[in-house]
Design brief:
The complex is a heterotrimer of chains A (266), B (273) and C (269). Chain A is mainly α and 266 residues long. Chain A contains eleven helices and no strands. In chain A, 79% of the residues lie in helices and 0% in strands. In chain A, helix 3 packs across helix 11 and helix 4 runs antiparallel to helix 5. The termini of chain A are far apart. In chain B, a hairpin with a 2-residue loop joins strand 1 and strand 2. The N terminus of chain C is likely disordered. Chain C has two domains: 46 residues; 200 residues, MetI-like (MetI-like fold). In chain C, helix 4 packs across helix 10 and helix 9 runs antiparallel to helix 11. Chain C is globular, with a radius of gyration of 25 Å. In chain C, 83% of the residues lie in helices and 0% in strands. The relative contact order of chain C is 0.12. Classes of the chains: A mainly alpha (266), B alpha/beta (273), C mainly alpha (269). Chains A and C meet through helix 2, helix 3, helix 4, helix 6 and helix 7 of A and helix 1, helix 2, helix 3, helix 4 and helix 5 of C.
Chain lengths: 266, 273, 269
């Protein structure tokens, strides 16, 4: 090797990238700093593990007394109802909202107003919205439904607007050329192009509402979350575990069902 | 195996002294069925000489690719033996299989570079079989390997591209990197699966020249699948013709005549004009 | 136009098989039944609904003007929330990576292990962050530690699923090349898969961080630290002018996060 030209080395092959090194160093320092701010220490973690063992011990076995099962069934059914209604009304309201927000169909002032509204609806976590509705309409499923309607409008509205913006304007122009009014243009030119994707949005939103409907109850919005929170506050951790297992099972079941539905509509 | 390893370390510039040892690949009754009862290779038996370039020609879907992939076991044969350097490659498993693979370089039709790694690191990937994974993680490649990788890149005219990302290269440049990666393994054999099929005619010739030159300098035998008969004639020392999972021609390029090609490829219209 | 419509319909009739049509009708019917059933059985007190607009208006009126004396509490809660979201996301990335490898069918060849990984991922996603927070508060006591773990465990499912899909979509060619070079499995993972998965990895991380900022803002409602604690204090004391300040702060931060993440995303992709 000494006979050849001065051979190039590892440094030549992989020149030091100081930006990347600085980023990694920064990340490590940040983790240490943030952990100290949040008082996340190893000691607490170890104590927690011990505590966690006891906690799991009290959770197991899941409580399946007839009376508890009935409570859970009622709560779960209410969660399902919340999810169904929130999806139905949310999607219904999202339709006009998304349509107005689509920049290729409506004048800028209208679409920007609708987009701002959608952004506002999407900003807050459903739980925060639920708190506000609990104050406005009292404890119970109604507050939960309304909170999830807001979330559904924001999400479906946004996706719907994007879907409409992606459609082919040729078909719209063709229908318009026949002298059709705005409504006819919508029904003949726009909707057929987005309907297939729309089914997907609805299923997705129903899935998301189902997950969130298990949570709004914690702040008074009805459903299984309320049952869960009560059990939690009473330290009935075995009931908590039963509820968690039921939630996981239902959501897994829905994932299977939704794949089936998607296939039917493909 | 031990000899090969010792040589690989003691003679980084290749196996010039070792070429005398027997590197024949002896294939016996090799059979491969992807689906039971539908053999792609029908009990192929052939001995590929451990020197020079052997070209396997034949229409696509005839088992050429399966044949060479059986040698480094990217495809597991259904039955048969592949004897190479004193081992039956067909039966190797785990660490033994990896140790055998690192002595067999491979060049692919689609280059198969890791696009987001630099050119030089793609070359050094040829050394992964010889180093521990944590050294690979920290890029602690052997200094001699790095120097050799740079020299190889210079030799194929890509010296300036060493630290560029592989996805910045053209097809012909990528294939040069692919060949260099195989050479980096210090292999006892190079397999090339349609190395020129994704390239234009001029680049194809250049790539074959590079492959032939680098292998010949180091005395490494090459087995190349190629459907371009002209390239096979021009570069190979020996041609094996395959059709429907069987070997139908085996001899020097000069012995390859039109009636052989008709037997291999079927029809004759494509020969005229 | 009527001809256009009618041909559209005939094409429609031919395009779908009887089974598909029946399937669709079944979905429609079940949906209708579900909606009617929900409407009839859900416990809603109509008076509350009629009253809602007035109540909502009243609520917003009481929020303004904000009570700025509450700002120091809000700010420290906000900082805690951002740390919770970031640390939780980082922890999720670390925890999700092995599960993703287990879930990817091209890496883990055992169907049983794939299923196990999927079970972990689905469980993580099915349990809401607020519920995860409840569990961790029970174990570690109130505070940001519980919140961070809740964020992390809730995110494993999301990150693991997307990461697993990215691994499954990795091109086979380079992997084949490294295998043929005799590289050990770990080296193939590092030099074959990781370079291909890396862009998705960072974009998933960024995406999840964006979501986690929103999520961690509410964890305080069950005592898991952050700005949610301030919101909980304000609402349970009925200090709506303080709650308004918290909500405005959350709104601003969420909008800023979205701007920042979309900036970074357009830069790295």
């Amino acid at each position: 090797m000494s006979t050849t030209l001065p051979s190039r080395t590892l440094r030549d092959a992989f020149p030091a990238n100081w930006t990347v090194r600085a980023l990694w160093l920064g990340l490590v320092l940040y983790v240490i700093y943030a952990a100290s701010i949040l008082q996340i220490t190893w000691a607490r973690f170890v104590i927690g593990l011990d505590q966690g063992g006891k906690f799991l011990g009290r959770m197991w076995p899941p409580n399946v007394q007839a009376q508890k099962v009935q409570l859970i069934t009622e709560g779960m059914l209410e969660s399902l109802q919340i999810a169904v209604l929130a999806t139905a009304f949310g999607v219904l309201l999202a339709l006009p909202l998304g349509l107005i927000a689509a920049r290729n169909l409506t004048p800028p002032w209208a679409s920007w107003t609708a987009r701002a509204l959608i952004a506002l609806l999407r900003t807050f976590h459903p739980v925060i919205v639920a708190i506000l509705f609990v104050k406005a309409v009292g404890f119970g499923a109604l507050a939960g439904v309304l909170a999830l309607v807001v979330a559904s409008m924001g999400f479906v509205g946004k996706l719907f607007a994007e879907a409409i913006e992606e459609i082919s304007m040729k078909q719209v122009e063709a229908v318009r050329a026949t002298g059709a009014g705005f409504l006819s243009v919508l029904i003949m030119g726009v909707l057929p192009q987005v309907m297939a994707r729309f089914v997907g949005f609805i299923i997705y939103q129903l899935d998301s509402n189902l997950r969130n409907s298990t949570m709004v109850g914690i702040v008074g919005g009805g459903g299984i979350g309320a049952t869960l929170f009560t059990a939690y506050q009473r330290f009935d951790y075995d009931v908590v575990l039963t509820i968690l297992l039921v939630i996981i099972a239902i959501i897994m079941l829905f994932e299977v069902v939704s794949t089936r539905i998607r296939k039917v509509f493909q | 195996m031990i000899t090969a390893e010792v040589l690989a370390h003691s003679a980084p510039d290749g196996h010039a002294g070792a070429s005398a040892s027997n590197r024949d690949v002896e294939i016996r009754n090799l059979r491969k069925e992807y689906r039971a009862g539908q053999p792609v290779l029908r009990d192929v038996s052939v001995t590929i000489a451990g020197k020079g370039m052997t070209a396997i020609i034949g229409p696509s879907g005839t088992g050429k690719s399966t044949l060479i992939r059986c040698i480094n076991r990217l495809v597991d044969p259904t039955s048969g033996q592949i004897l190479f350097m004193g081992r039956d490659l067909a039966t190797l498993k785990g660490a033994d299989l990896r140790a055998a693979r690192r002595t067999i370089g491979m060049v692919f039709q689609e280059y198969n570079l890791v696009e987001r790694l630099s050119v030089i690191e793609n070359l050094l990937c040829g050394r992964l079989g010889y180093m521990s994974w944590w050294r690979a993680l920290l890029r602690r490649f052997d200094a001699a390997d790095v120097a050799r990788a740079f020299d190889l890149l210079e030799a194929v005219g890509l010296g300036e591209m060493a630290t560029r990302r592989a996805d910045a290269l053209s097809g012909g440049q990528r294939q040069r990197v692919g060949i260099c990666r195989a050479i980096m393994q210090n292999p006892d054999l190079i397999l090339a699966d349609e190395p020129t099929s994704s390239l234009d005619p001029k680049t194809s010739v250049e790539i074959m020249e590079v492959l032939e030159k680098l292998a010949a300098e180091r005395g490494i035998p090459v087995v190349v699948n190629i459907h371009n008969v002209e390239l096979a004639r021009r570069f190979a020392d020996r041609v094996i013709g395959m059709s429907k999972g069987m070997i139908v021609f085996d001899g020097p390029p000069s012995a390859l005549e039109d009636h052989h090609l008709i037997e291999i490829y079927g029809g004759k219209g494509w020969l005229e004009g | 136009m009527s001809t256009a419509v009618s041909t559209g319909i005939t094409r429609e009739w031919q395009r779908f098989t009887l089974g598909e049509r029946l399937g669709r009708y079944a979905v429609y019917v079940v949906s209708a039944i579900a909606i009617i059933w929900s409407l009839r059985t859900i416990e809603v007190i109509p008076e509350f609904l009629y009253d809602a607009p007035a109540q909502t208006y009243d609520l917003f009126e009481r929020m303004w003007p904000f009570d700025w004396r509450f700002w120091p509490t809000v700010l420290s809660g906000l900082i805690e929330t951002l740390h919770t979201a970031t640390l939780g996301t980082l922890m999720a990335l670390v925890l999700a990576a092995p599960v993703a490898l287990l879930a990817a069918r091209n890496i883990t060849r055992s169907v049983a292990l794939n299923q196990l990984a999927n079970l972990i991922l689905v469980s993580s996603r099915s349990v809401n962050s607020l519920i995860w927070a409840l569990l961790f508060v029970a174990i570690f006591g109130p505070g940001a530690l519980a919140g961070t773990l809740a964020i992390a465990f809730r995110s494993i499912g999301f990150v693991g699923k997307l990461l697993g899909e990215a691994i499954e979509e990795a091109q086979k060619g380079p992997i084949e090349a490294l295998t043929a070079a005799g590289a050990p499995p770990m080296a193939i993972l590092l030099k074959g898969y990781w370079p291909q998965v890396e862009p998705s990895f960072w974009s998933v991380a960024l995406f999840r961080w964006d979501i986690n900022v929103r999520e961690s803002a509410v964890l305080g409602l069950v005592g898991a630290g952050g700005i949610g604690v301030a919101l909980d204090t304000a609402t349970s004391n009925l200090y709506w002018d303080q709650a308004g300040l918290v909500l405005a702060t959350i709104f601003t931060v969420v909008v800023l996060t979205e701007i920042v993440t979309s900036r970074i995303r357009s830069k790295i992709i």
